[in-house]
């Protein structure tokens, strides 16, 4: 099937990322993920800090409540013998218990016990003796302690003067009812807020260190990315320079080989034919001088040889620059090439091309023609094929060439000496125009070559 004309039905070429863009994406994506993780982690750390503060406060309050309970247990155990002494009257027992609280039951530097009755009248206060005998319900902490003692539901937090410094500080109190006398015995602990703040400061320090570590990790990743970009850019430029030098070297070698082939064609073909023509003309000249009538046969042979020479010259000229390609375009030139190949080899060619006339540059057209010509030559000499599929499609941004045969195939990794020269020439021709060349073949599986060429339009656009 052969078609030409509009290419709007073709699928546009998928944009291919360069090595630099792939490396950048591989570097930037993890960096963005890392930044996202750090952001989420910082938010989580903030939430954890709040939860940690609440947990620490609750944990310390629970711990202090147990400690206060233990202190009250000790105090109650200390007054138990007095309360069980049958020799003392109730008044004597109460007096003895008050004396014990005022004089002996202390702990630490600022620890003491106080006693109120259920109506809020202070009975014992070693630190503030002026409270004794007075109703202190006007102090907010007193009603709270009385209620807590009767309900036994935790501790009471308040600010109170520390005996050793005279400064008001945070304190937690705990009280219990002394059942026989309906007294409320309580005590308290200072420095609770300081302990909470100290612990939270430690937690905050750990969180800050963690955040600082993550920030350093992010900065290190950014620096690494910058260095990677510079390295990739340098490496790509170096590879591009090396590749350009190789292409130039291969192009010069290709020109030299083509010139040598042209020289061989001239020397071994055309030159020998011209020598033969000259020999026949000289022979006819001698025969004519002698009056020998056979000079006509010599001239006939010379003319026949001259016709052969003209055909050889045309063939060489066609191989250098096909006239059909210059005059009629790529599609007609390819059709002529296919027809000659089928007549010469008997191999069937199934072809399909979709080419927009007059939009291909001369460079691309010649390149496609030469690649197909070289491929046909390889198939004729080596493939032992019976059928060839040729496809040339013009897409919006590139020209796609696919050629495959059903021949015996080969292992590209183990080519015989001299067989890979034509394939090398095809690859070099395609890459010289910035295209991509691919070869796929295996024994008994045929051969397929594909070439992708960027479109160079008549006005130089790419």
TrEMBL record:
PROSITE patterns membership: HIS_KIN
Key words of the record: 4Fe-4S, Cell membrane, Cytoplasm, Iron, Iron-sulfur, Kinase, Membrane, Metal-binding, Transferase, Transmembrane, Transmembrane helix, Two-component regulatory system
Statement: the UniProt record of this protein carries the keyword Oxidoreductase: no
Top-level taxon: Bacteria
Enzyme Commission number(s) from the entry: 2.7.13.3
Cited Pfam families: HATPase_c, HisKA_3, sCache_2
Transmembrane segments: 213-234
Cited InterPro entries: HATPase_C_sf, HATPase_dom, His_kinase_dom, sCache_2, Sensor_HK_TwoCompSys, Sig_transdc_His_kin-like_C, Sig_transdc_His_kin_sub3_dim/P
Record bears the keyword Zinc: no
Main location: membrane
Domain Histidine kinase: 265-457
Listed cofactors: [4Fe-4S] cluster
Bilayer topology annotation: Multi-pass membrane protein
Compartment(s) where it occurs, according to its Swiss-Prot or TrEMBL record: Cell membrane; Cytoplasm
One term under GO cellular component: cytoplasm
GO molecular function, one term: 4 iron, 4 sulfur cluster binding
Catalytic activity field: ATP + protein L-histidine = ADP + protein N-phospho-L-histidine
Function: Member of the two-component regulatory system NreB/NreC involved in the control of dissimilatory nitrate/nitrite reduction in response to oxygen. NreB functions as a direct oxygen sensor histidine kinase which is autophosphorylated, in the absence of oxygen, probably at the conserved histidine residue, and transfers its phosphate group probably to a conserved aspartate residue of NreC. NreB/NreC activates the expression of the nitrate (narGHJI) and nitrite (nir) reductase operons, as well as the putative nitrate transporter gene narT.
UniProt name for this protein: Oxygen sensor histidine kinase NreB
Species of origin: Thiothrix caldifontis
